[in-house]
Design brief:
Blueprint (H helix, E strand, L loop, with lengths): L1 H15 L10 H35 L11 H36 L3 H11 L2 H28 L3 H25 L4 H11 L5 H19 L3 H33 L4 H58 L1
Helix pairs in contact: 1-5, 2-3, 5-9, 5-10, 6-7, 6-10, 7-8, 7-10, 8-10, 9-10
Length: about 325
């Protein structure tokens, strides 16, 4: 259990830590560079357009196009220069369009992990870390319970047949040996019932009921913590929402003016913490429902198997 907690904690830290090996370029700096590049290309296009108009006039003044009978070098030179300038303008226009569309393409190429890390940092880690802790602890408990419950699942019908055969061939002692060598709560209940069978059927039945309650408590161990984290994660997210809104209104009060740039940061933190808290609750709720369904299935199996064991003991007494 402790190793599972440690592994999940390590993975969570690795998931949210920034990538220091790569140079970090601020969004404002990237936008400024793109704008400068666009301005330079636009100026160059304007200059080429002026040259293009001059070449068109020169082409008109050059006269008729060249033919095999009557070559016109001036027309050929003007036409070649016109085509060259037009090609340069087309290339620059393509470059400008690529620069304009580049931020949108970069956003589309972000994978889920990068997007999640970006939103976590934007939501302010000092608020986001609390829902994250709920997720880590809740997942650790949920995974441990799922492993335990799956290991506790046995084929009770097969065990019942083996116990019945052992009772016929070797009596209670051999049946207890079969239960001792079989893992799971059903085998443990069978063993306690067989152990008290020498004191009478009533004592065996009480032992089955009492030890069934003990096994049920083992199955439900720590499940209440998962339920707590499901309720706690959205509350912590809402707390970040309230704090973010308070921060936004403090900035408005200090500035004395209602500007979107003043409140955008606080509102963004508020929304991201709420979303993250709800996501944590949704994930843990899925695991919680699976665990509860698994426990109910095992408990029903235990009850049916206990009835079968009592029938075996009654038949054996006859």
């Amino acid at each position: 259990m402790k190793r599972l907690f440690s592994l999940l904690l390590i993975f969570s830290v690795l998931a949210v830590q920034p990538n220091y090996a790569l140079p970090i370029i601020d969004d404002d700096e990237l936008t400024e560079n793109n704008e400068n590049s666009q301005n330079e290309n636009s100026n160059e296009i304007d200059e080429l357009n002026v040259q293009l108009e001059l070449m068109k006039k020169a082409l008109e003044e050059a006269g008729e196009p060249s033919t095999d009978e009557k070559p016109n070098p001036a027309y050929d030179a003007a036409k070649k220069g016109l085509d060259s300038i037009q090609e340069k303008i087309n290339k620059l226009n393509t470059l400008v369009n690529n620069v304009v569309n580049e931020p949108a393409e970069d956003e589309e190429t972000l994978n889920f992990h990068e997007e999640l890390k970006k939103r976590f940092i934007e939501g302010d880690p000092k608020f986001m870390v609390f829902p994250l802790l709920c997720l880590i602890l809740g997942l650790a408990i949920a995974i441990e319970r799922i492993i335990y419950l799956n290991l506790s699942t046995t084929d009770s019908a097969k065990l019942t047949r083996q116990v019945e055969e052992a009772m016929k061939s070797g009596g209670v002692k051999e049946a207890k040996e079969v239960c001792r060598n079989t893992p799971g709560p059903v085998a443990s209940i069978f063993y306690q019932g067989l152990d008290r069978s020498s004191e009478g059927l009533e004592s065996a039945e009480k032992a089955l009921i009492a030890y069934g309650g003990v096994q049920m408590g083992q199955l439900e161990k720590n499940v209440s913590w998962v339920s707590l984290f499901i309720a706690l994660a959205p509350m912590l997210g809402f707390m970040g929402t309230v704090i973010g809104m308070i921060t936004a209104f403090d900035k408005i009060e200090a500035a004395g003016d209602m500007q979107p740039s003043l409140v955008a940061g606080g509102i963004k933190v508020a929304l991201l913490t709420t979303v993250f808290g709800l996501i944590v609750a949704i994930i843990l709720q899925v695991f919680y429902n699976y665990i509860i369904a698994k426990i109910d299935s095992i408990v029903n199996d235990m009850e049916n198997a206990s009835i079968d064991l009592m029938d075996i003991l009654v038949n054996n007494k006859k």
